[in-house]
Predict the 3D structure of the following.
Amino acid sequence: MTDTATEHLLSFVGATLIDNRPGVDEVNVPMIRHWVEAMNMPSAIHLDADAAAATGRSSVVAPAAMTQAWVMRGYAATVDPAKAPVDGFADLIAALDACGYTSVVATDSDFTFERELVPGDRVSYTEVVDAISDEKTTGLGVGRFVTTTKTYTDEAGEVVARQVWRTLRFRPKASAGSYSGTATDGSAPAPTTPKEG
């Protein structure tokens, strides 16, 4: 890792990674049903119009926890990176990789909801980098916490939810008993013991 690589990484603080990207599908009952059944959610307001009306709602509503699902990339982009959108998020990952932070684990996800989503809503989102921490030594390895805010809006541009999302991007430790290099006589080298960064 060079100072130039670190400076480039830290330059992402304040940057917009994704700007008002719409989800592929509008909020719809079939996807709500799949989610409710998978999560074993008993609330009738998500699928039963009469039950929703009895609570003063004009229609069924999507579970709040589904907000992010409406803008997630599809299966095709997951199995074929060439079909994934080109955006600032990919640039950030490349900058993290250049610093050796090639592994990731999510640590926090804090939502604030402004209104419930209903069938027919078309959700878009914008993601901005809030902070990239100093280098930290953790049980997983040496890395940095990356915090972004995702702002979710409807087709009219009104905010429906905000999500503060934090991940740890880190250099994975070598596994105990792993091998490094090749002995000069061609035999297997002795196991190496990982050390704290």
Remarks:
- Confidence is low (pLDDT under 50) at residues 177-197.
- The longest strand covers residues 159-172.
- The first helix runs from residue 3 to 10.
